[in-house]
Amino acid sequence: MSLIEIKNLIFGYNPNQIPLFNNFSLTLPKGEIISIIGRNGAGKTTLAKLMIGMLRPQKGNILIDNEATNKKTIAEIAEKIGYVFQNPNIMLFTNTVEKELELSLLRLNIPKEEAEKRIQEMLDFFNLEIYRKVHPRLLSRGEKQKLALAIVLIQNPQAIILDEPFSGIDIKQKIQIRDYIFKLKEQKRLVLIITHDLDAVLEYSDRVISMDFGNIIFNGQTEQFFYNPTNLQKVNLTETYMLSMFYSLRKEGLPENILKRKEIISYFKHKFS
Amino acid sequence: MISIKKVNFQYFQSPNLVLKDVSLEIEEGEFIGIIGPTGCGKSTLCYLLNGLIPHSMKGYFDGNVRIMGRNTRSETVDELSNIVGYMLQEPSFQIITPNVESEIAFGMENSGIDRETMRERIDYVIKILGIKHLRKRVTSDLSEGEKQRVILASILALEPRLLVLDECSSMLDLTSKQELANTLRQLNKKQGKTIVMIEHDLDFLLDLVDRIILINDGKIIADGSTSEILTNSELIIQNDLVPPLLIQLFNDFKENLLQVEKIPSSYFEAAEILRGWLK
Predict the structure, then answer these.
(1) Where are the alpha helices (DSSP H) in B129-266?
(2) What whole-number distance in Å separates Cα of residue B60 and Cα of residue B72?
(3) DSSP H helices in chain A
(4) What average pLDDT is seen over chain A?
(5) Contact assignment for B89 to A168 by CB distance below 8 Å
(6) Do A13 and B141 touch (CB under 8 A)?
(7) Which chain A residues are Cβ-neighbours of B143 within 8 angstroms?
(8) Chain B residue with minimum CA distance to A39
């Protein structure tokens, strides 16, 4: 079942140039974790902003649950797709962490008890309870990032787009966020991650979409993408240190299907036993 | 070059002390990584280095900070900016002018540098940071990663002796990140610039910095060479961090009863070990 369907999209920032997205189509199903990767300026964030209605297509259609979104308001689209901005500051308006979460539930007409329950869940999950009454501006970058995520997740959207969710946070929090992402997948939601963090892509996502100047260069299984180093080169991306080490060891006989830590461990375990 | 003595700091609105009895010495030419869990006081520590504390960030401040012998209490942030180039964690807080070229020139104009020198320096920083394609762009259209590189350019144009970088690579793709690593290495090794960088990506630090300072709960927990700190998984885990992926890999090898004589402290060393195993 497709949740988001983009049909023959045309969009560009500068009317005098060839549009960034020139007849662009893409279908995104439910229940998958999909990573969108590409260099700075490839159009990843622009694509996300088009999906949530912050930018509007110059031509073409974007359907969510088979409904066209061009007549819908941003608020209406937001009930279906949650978007966590790259810069958490622009998502914060009020003067306490708690009010920030309350505000995000306001539109949904949720009974007070349920709202309180959800707020508590979010504060607990992201370890933000101690900051309940603190001004969001006083939080560190990583804490703001978690709050921004909580603001979106508390609304239970069917699809969630995370724009660079792992920047400015430590690895422990990254694992917390990862666990939440897996939970969303179990609930058959769509998780779209825009990221530069290829370690995370390899570990978390089912599918990789690689982009370059508004074009999709690869759209397929994560393992398939990383199996062939040229897939990264095609979008001018460099492999992670770990992958680069694995690729270089292929010459010495390391099997080509080894891409992850646990795979190399079991390989050597077998080799030496 | 930097001497921090018994500093305590608490923001007026925050519930507790953010820095607790912090003392630290940094020599000229050092390349240092500051690590620690989110909210532990890393950024606050760096605000000490360019006078943002006590001049802009208000709070309870106790102790002394000297940068090249000058007490930050009696210098203004302006005066310190000639020595210290500071990159904030939030790129959008640090971009002031409407286009890239004027952004890079802005700091120099304020320092009264002549036009000819300004041109030369703009050309130079644009070249070493590989941002020629951004030169004529409007700053508000830049992506966060592009902004980070423009900010770094505007800082380098002032030729500071000390660079303080708060998460300067967080928005960069890997290619840009590795390019940045090369630039920083050159600035440190060839031009002798002192660099202090806050970084969450411990794998990135492994092959880059010489010394690591670990902070947790406002205190300096450990201070030592990169390999000494980063290969000490117990220490890293105790302080709510996760060891670099490379170190985790070799810890996992050990747990699976594979013979690891020494945990490697760089990817280069690691590849050598694995090459041996493959034979």
Answers:
(1) 144-156, 174-189, 202-206, 226-230, 233-238, 245-255
(2) 15
(3) 44-51, 74-78, 97-105, 112-125, 141-153, 171-186, 198-204, 222-227, 230-234, 241-249, 261-272
(4) 90
(5) yes
(6) yes
(7) 40-41, 45
(8) B173
Residue B141 DSSP class:
G
pTM of the model: 0.78
Location of structure tokens 């080490």: A245
Range with lowest mean pLDDT among A102-116, A235-249, B168-182, B263-277: B168-182
Q: Which two tokens stand for residue B215?
A: 């902070």
Determine the Cα–Cα distance for residues B20 and A29; give it in Å rounded to an integer: 50
Beta bridge partners of B32: B196, B211
Which of A40, A84, A195, A212 is the best residue to mutate to test the B interface, defined by the most B CB atoms within 10 Å of its own CB? A40
Phi-psi region of B138 (alpha: psi -120 to 50; beta: other; left: phi over 0): beta
Strand partners for B62: B8
Residue-level length of chain B: 279
DSSP helix/strand/coil, B20: strand
Q: Minimal CA–CA distance to B130: which of B177, B92, B91?
A: B177
Does any CB of chain B come closer than 8 Å to the CB of residue A168? yes
Nearest to B274 among A40, A45, A249 (CB): A249
Q: What span, in angstroms and rounded, lies between the C-alpha atoms of B80 and B69?
A: 12
The Cα–Cα gap between A249 and A255 comes to 9
B:157-176 residues touching chain A, CB 8 A cutoff: 167, 170-176
* Tokens (6 digits) for B275: 């090459």
H/E element, A27: strand A21-29
Q: What does the pLDDT average to over A32-56?
A: 91
ipTM of the complex, rounded to two decimals: 0.73
For residue A44, give the nearest of B169, B178, B143 by alpha carbon: B143
Inter-chain residue contact A271 with B178, CB threshold 8 Å: no
| CB B19, CB B218: distance < 8 Å | yes
Under a CB-based contact definition with an 8 Å cutoff, are residues A141 and B89 in contact? yes
Chain B residue nearest residue A260, CA to CA: B249
